[in-house]
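Exercise 3.2. Students should predict the tertiary structure of the chain below and write it as structure tokens, then compare their answer with the key that follows.

Predict this chain's 3D structure.
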Amino acid sequence: MQKMGVAWRRWRTQVKSTSYDSNTPLEELVSIRPVPHGLSSEVWKRLCQHWKVSERSSKINRENAKMKKGTHAQGRTSIPSLEDKFFKENGRKPTRIEILQLSWRSKKKSGVPVDIEVVRYENLLDEAVQRRL
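Answer key:
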């Protein structure tokens, strides 16, 4: 089954790279005669529609990713795992703020904040805590 999946992806990639142009309108792509690679016209139409929708989604996702702020550096580590590790190191349960601070710092770079927004958020949190105390 794995070999079939690899062969299918390779073939689909070849069809897309040789016959599909993202700059061409969908109507023109669907009307290509003869249909590329011996596909039925219905299958070719569905492939083209799928690729167009994927491009739109990909573009939207890229734009949304650029607007994202406050990226975490937690990876696959769950919050309960972070809490447990903190408890073992410090002998007490971490506060919510401490959990946020743990998840915003890079483990690979010795605790460096992952971006500039993290520093701003941490400063705002510190100010709020100081006002509260």
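Discussion points: The mean pLDDT is 88. The CA atoms of residues 111 and 129 lie 21 Å apart.
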